[in-house]
Structures are given as structure tokens and as C-alpha cells.
């Protein structure tokens, strides 16, 4: 276990510090990718396939190339001259067939929206004019539009040399699942379907590539959550040395995992830049985003749970089907794999048999979205446990509680992959149920029902894997990347502090929370701390990127460690200046003083001056000049935060519409750096999950055509759709993370889908409705209600 | 490109007069961002749903992505860059900082402009009125609750400021 070095003072940590990011962003002074203009810059646009599966028989770009204002037009054949196939960094299934594609299609298109050609022109208006002049002939191929078609015995194949459309399959066994199911008193099961959606940051993706062959450098501005990974992958695809590539990230208008992945657009922009000898800006517009940003969530889970009559869960088994696209995205089958590894959730289940099947379809590539598989894992265990409670006639609260590991049982191995570090699950459950009582929901439900309204209270318990993750473990399970984080912390010649981090700021307030940790770690005012992120040339390398609830946990731990060591050096220099023993000194508010004798003190400015400029007589002979520490933190284990969410809803039985009335969550993410920001993360994640639970869906027709490629059809929740939120925290520190943080960026998205179903079921408990499909749109719910009503009449 | 038809547009943005030549198809959002250099107005969908591009056009909230620059010729426009009072955030902006009414900041320009209009028309809104008032701007980060709190608190602060000014008179 790693030694825990707690910050000695917590003037800032644990406080609702206002964000240092805000004044800039509130005044329109943020700088997002489209706000950046570099000298000589031109703009690109991509021609995307209008069909889901076809052979390209002819492309004629001549008319487009002749349009005034056009600098270059490229096709897949031009691109392969300089670029290899798009990378896949997760190969989670042994012997998986990895279907790769180039950034522009060369002979076959396998999804609507796959890039076919690209233009660079004087501006985006002209570039889009030019796209209309490109002629492409497509010879249609049979389309595999959905999962069921892909699995059919006579299904057309996406890849002719494969035996079927299955990219790979694997099973995680624990104990003896067959025996458990044979001896079970009660078995509950269902087929759960979460349809496709995506992260949908309000800012779309974009980049500016400047590939200057004469300078021998590729300089890229990129709206990414993983600049170091992007640099490595640019190097890999373009056969360039990493040191010749610089990736800078501007302000990100939301990330949500979607901007973790590495897209064809980055390569297309680079090639266009090389061809035109000009920097090229390439932005995805909103309509494109529905086919060009990572599709996510799209899975079916056929699972069942075995229990004894007293409620003890003894087995879980099933098959999860990942609806992959026409080629693998950056993270391959990673999120579906996580949905399987996490599907036992917070419950002790000794016997498991969990199978993943990754299936290719003519849809856009599958990729990252906040929660990364875990929302669907949560659907499996939270829906099944409620179905079991119903069948056993037990309280759904008691059934959950009796199957938790007790605090003494941690670290607890969950059976498939994860070892949960610490937790007080039952306390958290009780915190939520007592909050529901305090807020009067039970009374509201009773009174509402008496008035003929269908009011329901939903519950959901979630676990969230954070601090992702121990590098060697990640490598062993198929990640071609690491999981550590590196931080550089520096006090300058005036005693002010700069922290350089490889993490990305995408709205979660990383700069503020890092400043809080550094200010406490060094004993300086928070105003004296500057955080720098977003430049591979000056910022440290981080494994992976900003995802997997890594920023507070791993970056935070590295800051705690590095500032602890830097503080020791500051005190040693202070001791020289004060002619005292370092052990007798303390530092507070930027002044080093003898403990108990505040009049004998020096400032951090004095320390900085002694370390950088006036060394003679001030810097101890044994010390090297400068004040700088680096910490590389590779966790011994991941963290597991958890929470219990409750949701109050009303269902309209005439329309199938669901109104979200109120929401609360009891949560434990270990040490909370900033409660204000923590609540913001939880609320935002829940709102996204409610979108996925009720509204958001990529709808495809039988030709694989997407019918929801605008905000008129893909429904993001608005302020009138989302309820108020109330959060309750308990803190069980992560024992292996300096600082004790567990992370919480994904909690809301994991918890929020199944709880919608739980609440709807409760509102319709007299009908016995069981929600298993998401989003549960009004037409779908109406169908369930009518089926239940007619079954009731028949009975 | 030489035969491109252009028009001259003059607008007053945040009190500053800007004149520029543009194609008739140029949107007001692009005119503000590219011709005026005011990149605080953001584009999230370019089809009039997300509301990030909301500006005040002659004091009325308008989607600048669905407005052509030529339609705004002669108009008085307020963008997010025009809200701060000198070097200080205004009451609404301060309230957003205090209540964590923003995360990534991308929709925030639209939210602030929308809420500015809302509070001018209804200085004493209920929570429901605030939710309805801002429902034309989509936020993906916050879950809206903190934005609602920010606007409600700003309304309270504005009322306090008015009554203080009244009692000082």
C-alpha cells in the first residue's frame, strides 16, 4: 500500500471554493477551438457517406478542385500515402478480430457518415460548397442495420473473410454458476436494451493542424481530453517521431468521454495541411456529430440472477451484446467489456458466468461516453435485484442491504475483475432512505395516489470505478497505454506556484481543485497558485487521459505527494534564513515561521529569491537551486466510489410521459476536495443519464440510415425536463490514494438510468410494469402500460 | 470568388460600432465572431435549438445562428462581452460563479443572455418561470439546477440593489 501523505492544513480542501476558471468563461473570454485563428489558416470539411454499406466505384473531385477558393481535395487514396489505419488502443478480448479503417474510406464504406473525401478552402462556406461538387458512385451492399440482423444465421457479412459478424467473445467465470442456478429458490431474468446515444458536448469536436514539412513539425490544436495519447497516436498513424508533434488543447466545451477518442478528422486535417502547406481548421458540425462522434451505450444484456428464498444472491449469469459499428473505434470494445466486469455492482455474488459478445453492424464506430459501460452494468444488477424483491415479496431496500459486503470485508474482490477498496454501503443506503423520508416523498406519493396520480419513488445503488488505473494491470487486460499520472509543481523566484499537469480541463473545475490541493499542500494562498494544462510540449505525460475519474484521484494524489516534498525544501531554505531547525518551522498563508513565534518569519518570496537569484548566503550549500518537484503516481488499485440515488416521478398513464419531480443522492467518493463542484459533477451526470433513460436515442431505419441527426429529433433534456437535486455526502477515504479521493465524475451517468426504471415501475406497481428498455420514451411506456392493462383484464 | 456578391453591414455591438462586408448568407453569429472578433458567442448546433448563440438584438433575445447578418443591419446588439461592469462581473455573472452555474462555459453565453432578458421582463420569477425561461438553452454539464439557483439568486440581489438605491435616495 502506498503511504498516505495527508495535506497538513486544509484551508481550502473540503471547502466550496468558487472556481478560478469562471471570470474568464462568464465574460466571453474563454478560448474554444473555433475561437482560435492561426496565421494563414484555411478551413476544411469532410464529405461523408450517405449510405451504410457500399463499394465506392468512382470518385470525381475535379469540379470541386476547380471551385475558386478551394486549396485541396483529398480522397482515401490520397490519404493512405501518408497515413496508416486508425488506431485501436483497447484489445480486451483475446484473439479478437480488430476491424480497422483509414480516416477516409478507400474502397468500401461501412456506415452512414464514414468519411469519403475532404476539402480545404478559404473558409467553411466555400469548403461546404465544394463538397457538393464531388461526385461519388456507390454500389450498394447488403446492410446489417442492427444487432439482431447481425446475429442472424444468414446475415450478410461486414467483412467477407470473417466467418460471421462477431468480432470477439469471452466469458468471465467465478465459482460455479450452473450449480448456483440449479439450487436457486428464485431466478429472475430479463433482456435489457440500452439504445445508442452519445456524449453530445454542446461544443462539437474540432482541430487545427499545421503540418509544416520544412519545419519538420506537426503542430496541432485539438479539442481532446487526452493530448498525450493524441500525440502518440498521431505519431503512430502518420509515422512521425513524437518529438516532432505538439498537441495543444484550448478550453473544451464539454468532453464527456466523446472527446477522449481519437478521430479520423485529426488525420484528415493533418493531411490537408500537408497538401496545402497551410494550417487547416476542421470542425465537426452538429449534424455530422451524430455520425462522426463516438456512438455509445448501444448494447443488449440478457442476464439472470439466482437467489435463495431468504434473499441471498447466489448467482449471476448472462450474455452482453456490444453493438459495434463498421470498424472499431479508439477504445475498441472497452466500454461493453466494462459493462460486463461491473455488472455485479455492490452485491456479493459468489457464482458468476458473464459473457461478452462484440458484434459488428453498419453503424458508426462505438466509443467512449462518460460512465464507459458502467451505466449498463448498473441496469443489470439494479433491475434484477428489484425484480427479485418483487418475486420474493421483500423490501427492495432490505434486499439490497443484506447482499452488500460489510465494511470489514474490504478490500472486496467482486468476482470478475475489480477489487473494491473500501466502503460503508449500508450507511449510504440508509442516508438516502432517511433523506427520502425527510423530504416527505413518501407522503407526497401517498397523497398523490389518493388523488389518482401515478407517483413513483425509484432507488438505485451504484458503484463507480475510478482512479483508472494501475498501468501494468491495464496493460495485462489489453490496453496499449498506461494509467499513471505525472505532475510538476514549481515555486518561482517570487514565491508563487505553478502546477503543470497532463490532465485536461473540460469544465469539471480541475484548475480550481488542483489549486486547492496545491495551496494546502504548500501552505500558500490559493491566489498564488496557477495551474497549466493542455500542451504536450510543456505539460507532463499522463497515462490514458482525462477519463475514468482520474483527475482528482491520480492527479490529485500526485499534487499531494509533490507539494509535500517541495514544502520540505521550502522549510529547509526557510531554516537557513531564520537560523532555525526545519523541524521547528511551519508554513501558512505563504509565510514560513518558527512554530509558536510568528514574528520570526520569512515569505515565500524570500524563499524564491534565495532559490533562484540570491543564492549566496541564503540557499543552503546542500540544496540545488530552483524549487521544483515532479511526482509520478501509478495507483496500486483503482478506487470504488458509490452512492444511492432516489428519484420521485409521475407517470401519465394516458400518454406514457414521465415527469421527474425531485432527485436526491447519497454519495461516498472518499475525500471531497470541493463540495460545490462535486455536487455539480453529480447533478450533471444524473441529467445526462435521465436523457439516456427517457429521451436520447439514435434511431436507425432498415437501411442503417440515422433518423435523428439534429436536436429536433435527438432530444437533449432541457431545464424543464430535469428535477432539482439534493446531495448528501459521507466520506470513506480511499486507503491507497494520497489525499483519500475516490473520484466522482461518472457517478451520475452510472446511477441515473436504472433509477428512472425503478421509479416508473413503482409508479405503476399496481400494473406490474417492468421497464427493461432505454430510453423509455412515451410510446414505449404507453405500450407497456396497455399490455399490462390488457393482461390484467384477461387475468 | 471575385464575382461574389457582398453586402455592407453596420451594427452596434456592446456600444461599439462595427462595419463589415459579407456575403448575404453569412449568419449574424459568424459576423459577430469573425468580423467583430467577438468569439464569446458560441455555436452549438447552427439550427436554432441549443441556444448557445443567443444574443440580444435590439434588446430581444435572438438566435444569432438563425439570423443573417444583413437582417441585423443597423441593430443594437448585446453579447456576453457586454455584460461585465468595467472590470467587475455584473450581478448575474457573479451569481453564476457563486452557485456554480457553469462548468465548461460553452452554453453559458446563451444562458446569461437569455437570463438577462428574463430578469428584465420578470424581476421576481418563480423557480418554474426560471426553468421555462431558460429552457431554450441546452446545457450538458450542470443538470440545470445550479443555473436555476444562480438566476433566482441574481434576481434577489438585483431586488436588494434596487431597494438599497431606493432607501439611499
TrEMBL record, chain A:
Record keywords: Molybdenum, Oxidoreductase
Taking every annotated instance into account, which residue ranges of this chain make up the domain Aldehyde oxidase/xanthine dehydrogenase a/b hammerhead?
Answer: 27-142
Q: Which Pfam families match?
A: Ald_Xan_dh_C, MoCoBD_1, MoCoBD_2
- The Polar residues compositionally biased stretches are 1-17
Q: Which PANTHER family match?
A: ALDEHYDE OXIDASE 1-RELATED, XANTHINE DEHYDROGENASE
Does Ribosomal protein appear among the keywords?
no
What this protein is called in its record is Molybdopterin-dependent oxidoreductase
Source species of the chain: Prauserella halophila
Ranges for region Disordered? 1-20
Is Heme included in the keywords of this UniProt record?
no
From TrEMBL, chain B:
- Going by the entry's taxonomy, the superkingdom of the source organism is recorded as Bacteria
UniProt protein name: (2Fe-2S)-binding protein
User: Gene3D superfamilies from the entry?
Assistant: 3.10.20.30, [2Fe-2S]-binding domain (1.10.150.120)
Keyword set, alphabetical order: 2Fe-2S, Iron, Iron-sulfur, Metal-binding, Oxidoreductase
Q: Which organism is it from?
A: Prauserella halophila
Q: Which residues form the 2Fe-2S ferredoxin-type domain?
A: 7-83
Fetch the InterPro entries from UniProt. 2Fe-2S-bd (IPR002888), 2Fe-2S-bd_dom_sf (IPR036884), 2Fe-2S_ferredoxin-like_sf (IPR036010), 2Fe-2S_ferredoxin-type (IPR001041), 2Fe2S_fd_BS (IPR006058), Beta-grasp_dom_sf (IPR012675), Diverse_Oxidoreductases (IPR051452)
Amino acid at each position: 500500500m502506498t503511504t498516505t501523505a495527508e495535506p497538513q492544513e486544509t484551508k481550502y480542501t473540503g471547502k466550496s471554493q468558487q472556481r478560478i476558471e469562471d471570470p474568464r468563461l462568464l465574460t466571453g473570454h474563454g478560448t474554444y477551438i473555433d475561437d482560435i485563428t492561426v496565421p494563414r489558416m484555411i478551413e476544411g470539411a469532410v464529405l461523408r457517406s450517405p449510405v451504410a454499406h457500399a463499394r465506392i466505384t468512382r470518385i470525381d473531385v475535379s469540379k470541386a478542385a476547380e471551385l475558386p477558393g478551394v486549396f485541396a481535395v483529398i480522397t482515401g487514396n490520397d490519404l493512405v500515402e501518408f497515413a496508416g489505419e486508425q488506431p485501436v488502443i483497447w484489445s480486451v478480448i483475446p484473439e479478437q478480430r480488430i476491424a480497422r479503417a483509414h480516416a477516409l474510406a478507400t474502397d468500401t464504406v461501412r456506415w452512414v457518415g464514414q468519411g469519403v473525401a475532404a476539402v480545404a478552402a478559404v473558409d467553411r462556406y466555400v469548403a461546404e460548397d465544394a463538397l457538393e461538387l464531388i461526385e461519388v458512385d456507390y454500389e450498394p451492399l447488403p446492410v446489417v442495420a442492427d444487432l439482431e440482423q447481425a446475429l442472424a444465421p444468414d446475415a450478410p457479412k461486414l467483412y467477407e473473410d470473417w466467418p460471421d459478424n462477431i468480432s470477439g467473445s469471452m466469458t468471465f467465470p467465478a465459482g460455479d454458476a450452473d450449480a448456483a442456478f440449479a439450487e436457486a429458490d428464485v431466478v429472475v431474468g430479463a433482456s435489457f436494451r440500452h439504445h445508442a446515444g452519445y456524449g453530445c458536448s454542446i461544443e462539437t469536436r474540432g482541430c487545427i493542424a499545421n503540418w509544416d514539412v520544412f519545419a519538420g513539425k506537426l503542430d496541432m490544436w485539438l479539442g481532446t481530453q487526452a493530448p498525450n495519447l493524441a500525440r502518440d497516436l498521431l505519431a503512430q498513424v502518420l509515422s512521425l517521431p513524437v518529438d516532432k508533434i505538439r498537441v495543444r488543447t484550448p478550453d473544451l466545451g464539454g468532453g464527456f468521454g466523446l472527446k477522449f477518442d481519437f478521430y479520423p478528422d485529426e488525420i484528415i486535417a493533418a493531411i490537408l495541411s500537408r497538401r496545402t502547406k497551410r494550417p487547416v481548421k476542421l470542425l465537426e458540425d452538429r449534424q455530422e456529430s451524430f455520425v462522426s462522434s463516438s456512438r455509445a451505450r448501444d448494447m443488449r444484456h440478457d442476464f439472470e440472477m439466482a437467489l435463495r428464498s431468504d434473499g441471498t444472491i447466489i448467482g449471476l449469469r448472462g450474455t452482453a451484446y456490444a453493438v459495434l459499428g463498421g470498424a472499431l473505434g479508439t477504445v475498441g470494445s472497452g466500454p461493453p467489456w466494462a459493462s460486463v466486469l461491473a455488472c455485479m455492482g455492490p452485491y456479493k455474488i459468489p457464482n458468476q458466468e458473464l459473457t461478452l459478445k462484440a458484434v459488428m453492424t453498419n453503424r458508426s464506430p462505438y466509443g467512449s461516453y462518460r460512465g464507459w459501460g458502467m451505466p449498463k452494468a448498473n441496469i443489470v444488477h439494479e433491475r434484477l435485484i428489484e425484480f427479485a424483491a418483487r418475486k420474493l415479496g421483500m423490501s427492495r431496500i432490505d434486499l439490497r442491504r443484506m447482499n452488500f459486503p460489510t465494511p470489514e470485508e474490504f478490500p472486496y474482490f467482486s468476482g470478475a475483475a475489480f477489487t473494491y477498496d473500501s466502503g460503508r454501503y449500508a450507511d449510504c443506503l440508509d442516508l438516502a432512505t432517511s433523506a427520502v423520508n425527510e423530504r416527505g416523498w413518501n407522503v407526497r406519493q401517498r397523497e398523490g395516489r389518493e388523488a389518482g396520480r401515478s407517483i413513483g419513488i425509484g432507488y438505485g445503488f451504484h458503484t463507480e470505478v475510478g482512479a483508472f488505473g494501475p498501468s501494468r494491470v491495464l496493460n495485462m487486460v489489453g490496453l496499449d497505454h498506461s494509467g499513471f499520472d505525472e505532475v510538476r509543481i514549481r515555486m518561482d523566484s517570487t514565491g508563487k506556484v505553478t502546477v503543470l499537469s497532463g490532465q485536461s480541463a473540460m469544465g469539471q473545475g480541475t484548475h480550481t481543485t488542483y489549486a486547492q490541493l496545491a495551496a494546502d499542500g504548500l501552505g500558500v494562498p490559493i491566489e498564488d497558485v496557477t495551474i497549466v494544462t493542455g500542451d504536450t510540449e510543456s505539460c507532463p505525460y499522463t497515462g490514458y487521459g482525462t477519463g475514468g475519474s482520474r483527475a482528482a484521484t491520480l492527479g490529485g494524489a500526485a499534487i499531494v505527494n509533490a507539494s509535500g516534498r517541495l514544502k520540505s525544501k521550502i522549510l529547509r531554505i526557510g531554516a537557513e534564513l531564520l537560523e532555525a531547525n526545519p523541524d521547528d518551522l511551519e508554513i501558512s498563508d505563504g509565510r514560513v515561521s518558527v512554530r509558536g513565534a510568528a514574528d520570526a518569519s520569512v515569505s515565500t518570496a524570500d524563499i524564491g529569491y534565495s532559490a533562484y537569484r540570491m543564492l549566496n548566503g541564503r540557499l543552503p550549500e546542500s540544496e540545488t537551486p530552483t524549487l521544483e518537484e515532479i511526482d509520478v503516481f501509478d495507483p496500486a488499485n483503482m478506487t470504488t466510489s458509490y452512492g444511492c440515488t432516489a428519484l420521485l416521478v409521475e407517470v401519465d398513464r394516458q400518454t406514457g410521459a414521465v415527469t421527474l419531480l425531485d432527485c436526491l443522492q447519497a454519495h461516498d467518493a472518499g475525500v471531497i476536495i470541493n463540495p460545490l463542484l462535486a455536487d455539480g459533477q453529480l447533478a450533471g451526470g444524473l441529467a445526462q443519464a435521465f436523457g439516456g433513460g427517457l429521451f436520447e436515442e439514435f434511431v436507425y431505419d432498415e437501411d442503417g440510415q440515422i433518423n435523428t441527426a439534429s436536436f429536433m429529433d435527438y432530444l437533449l433534456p432541457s431545464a424543464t425536463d430535469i428535477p432539482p437535486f439534493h446531495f448528501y455526502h459521507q466520506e470513506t477515504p480511499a486507503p491507497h490514494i494520497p489525499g483519500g479521493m475516490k473520484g466522482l465524475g461518472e457517478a451520475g451517468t452510472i446511477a441515473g438510468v436504472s433509477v428512472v426504471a425503478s421509479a416508473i415501475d413503482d409508479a405503476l406497481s399496481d400494473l406490474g410494469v417492468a421497464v427493461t428498455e432505454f430510453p423509455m420514451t412515451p410510446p414505449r411506456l404507453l405500450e407497456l402500460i396497455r399490455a399490462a392493462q390488457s393482461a390484467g383484464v384477461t387475468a | 470568388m471575385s464575382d461574389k456578391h457582398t453586402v455592407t453591414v453596420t451594427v452596434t455591438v456592446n456600444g461599439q460600432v462595427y462595419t463589415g462586408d459579407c456575403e448575404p448568407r453569412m449568419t449574424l453569429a459568424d459576423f459577430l465572431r469573425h468580423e467583430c472578433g467577438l468569439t464569446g458567442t458560441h455555436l452549438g448546433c447552427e439550427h436554432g435549438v441549443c441556444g448557445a448563440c443567443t444574443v440580444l438584438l435590439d434588446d430581444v433575445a435572438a438566435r444569432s445562428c438563425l439570423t443573417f447578418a444583413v437582417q441585423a443591419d443597423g441593430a443594437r446588439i448585446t453579447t456576453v462581452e457586454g455584460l461585465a461592469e468595467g472590470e467587475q462581473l455584473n450581478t448575474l455573472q457573479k451569481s453564476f460563479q457563486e452557485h456554480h452555474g457553469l462548468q465548461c462555459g460553452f452554453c453559458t453565453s446563451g444562458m446569461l443572455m437569455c437570463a438577462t432578458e428574463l430578469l428584465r421582463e420578470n424581476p421576481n420569477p418563480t423557480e418554474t418561470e426560471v426553468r421555462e425561461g431558460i429552457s431554450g438553452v441546452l446545457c450538458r454539464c450542470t443538470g440545470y439546477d445550479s443555473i436555476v439557483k444562480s438566476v433566482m439568486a441574481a434576481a434577489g440581489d438585483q431586488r436588494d440593489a434596487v431597494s438599497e438605491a431606493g432607501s439611499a435616495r
